[in-house]
Design goal:
Elements: E1 20-23, E2 28-31, E3 34-35, H1 36-42, H2 45-54, H3 60-72, H4 78-86, H5 93-107, H6 121-146, H7 160-169, H8 175-188, H9 195-205, H10 210-221, H11 229-240, H12 246-255, H13 275-288, H14 292-309, H15 316-326, H16 333-354
Bound molecules: carboxymethyl coenzyme *A.
Carboxymethyl coenzyme *A is lined by residues 191, 194, 225-226, 229, 259-266, 309, 311, 314-316.
Length: 383
């Protein structure tokens, strides 16, 4: 049995999914059959959320109806705001969002009894849409609060991406910035059985509720080997400073056996199909903000690392500097990932609920052999 162990579940296929397809041979990613880069180039994030949940892109009428409903739930509720305000300013933003989702779940009293907690498919779709609509306010308020700025109310005349940027920065974003942000949301939206999605499915498989699954997924996403990598890319950029420092920095980092964040992937071994689309968005942003230095550092580190290790960038590599150019604090990057991935997570929760089997793997025990408490006399029933 020990020989069969697949550490990290590497290479193990645990279930079917119709939501997305990761193809390691072509390094490609399809959402419900559509290449993700085509969706990012042509669709608003709201349409992709609809696609992930329903299986098809929305008609014009469906999109309009979804957008109208989304606007109803954009404002931070007093309960969520009150709880966020209780948290120390030094709390990690991921803990802030995790707590906010927990508060929203506890406030949904339809899930109060364990038996009702799972909910009907219709209820869970509604919950998913509400959570999706509420994320921008939570993430934007988090960043503003840490900067000592006031909450900004949502704007009904702006679509999801433009409103998100409005609520964060209090000014209307340039179309180049809105487009880059919208693309990033779509590219981060879904990624098959990654660690956080699998966590959500494990929690769902016990017949727990959708909020608990999302809270658990946020916990899994927080780690730097998963969602935290886009933050870590910026930390690396800050450490390096400028392109001319890349080579000595990299030589030292590799000698110290450091992992270079934003590179490598468990599944894509020859490049990540999401990178070119996000890199194009980063290039437009660098031009818009007149920051060629950021691109130079980006390109130099990529070239030197790939040359030495043959390990390619993943989506976090271009998205980290892109979010930084837009004005997001480094600590806000992973919460932005939550706002995007909440679509994929909730789609997976509903798929798991629709054909559930408790996820309960086995382990090969390698602890001490059986032993006994000195002087303990077993009862007759135990013998
Ligand atoms: N920097 C330096 N060396 C690396 C890196 C890296 N970024 N990635 C892999 N390697 C080396 C690793 O040290 C190991 O070398 P050796 O065989 O000599 O020990 C070899 O490549 C295989 O690495 P691994 O960690 O066993 O590969 P994995 O498939 O388990 O890991 C990974 C994938 C993403 C955890 C890893 O590449 C990594 O830690 N990357 C940096 C963190 C990062 O960018 N994470 C975001 C991933 S994308 C998130 C998502 O899509 O959800």
């Amino acid at each position: 049995m020990t020989d069969d162990i697949k550490k990290g579940l590497a290479g193990v296929v645990v279930d079917h999914t119709a939501i997305s397809k990761v193809n390691p041979e072509t390094n490609s990613l399809l959402y419900r059959g559509y290449p993700v880069q085509e969706l990012a180039a042509t669709q608003p994030f709201e349409a992709v959320a609809h696609l992930l949940w329903h299986g098809e892109l929305p008609t014009d009428e469906e999109l309009a109806a979804f957008r109208a409903a989304e606007r109803q739930h954009r404002a931070l509720t007093p309960e969520v705001r009150a709880v966020i305000d209780l948290l120390p300013l030094e709390a990690h933003p991921m803990d802030e969002v995790r707590t906010a989702v927990s508060v929203i779940g506890a406030g949904d009293t339809a899930g109060a009894s364990a038996l009702k907690a799972v909910g009907t498919p219709e209820e869970n779709l509604e919950r998913s849409k509400r959570l999706f609509a509420m994320q921008p306010a939570i993430v934007a308020y988090g960043q503003r609060r840490r900067r000592g700025q006031e909450l900004i109310e949502p704007r009904d005349d702006l679509d999801y991406a433009a409103n998100f940027l409005w609520m964060t920065f209090g000014e209307e974003a340039h179309p180049t910035v809105v487009d880059a942000f919208n693309r990033s949301m779509i590219l981060y939206g879904e990624h098959s059985f990654n660690a956080s999605t699998f966590t959500a499915r494990v929690i769902t498989s016990t017949l727990s509720d959708l909020y608990s699954a999302v809270v658990g997924a946020i916990g899994a996403l927080k780690g730097p080997l998963h969602g935290g990598a886009n933050e870590a890319v910026l930390d690396i950029f800050d450490e390096i400073g400028e392109a001319s420092n890349v080579v000595p920095w990299l030589e030292r980092a590799l000698a110290e056996k450091r992992k270079i964040m934003g590179f490598g992937h468990r599944v894509y071994k020859r490049g990540d199909s999401r990178v070119p689309t996000m890199q194009a968005a980063l290039e437009s942003l660098a031009e818009h903000y007149d920051r060629p230095d950021v691109l130079e550092l980006y390109r130099t580190l990529e070239r030197e690392f790939v040359e030495r290790k043959g390990i390619y960038p993943n989506l976090d590599y271009p998205s980290g500097p892109a979010y930084s150019l837009m004005g997001f604090d480094t600590l806000t990057f992973t919460p932005l990932f939550i706002a995007a991935r909440i679509t994929g997570w909730t789609a997976h929760v509903m798929e798991q609920q629709a054909s559930n089997a408790l996820i309960r793997p086995l382990a090969a025990y390698n602890g001490p052999d059986e032993r006994h408490i000195e002087g303990y006399v077993p009862t007759e029933a135990e013998l």
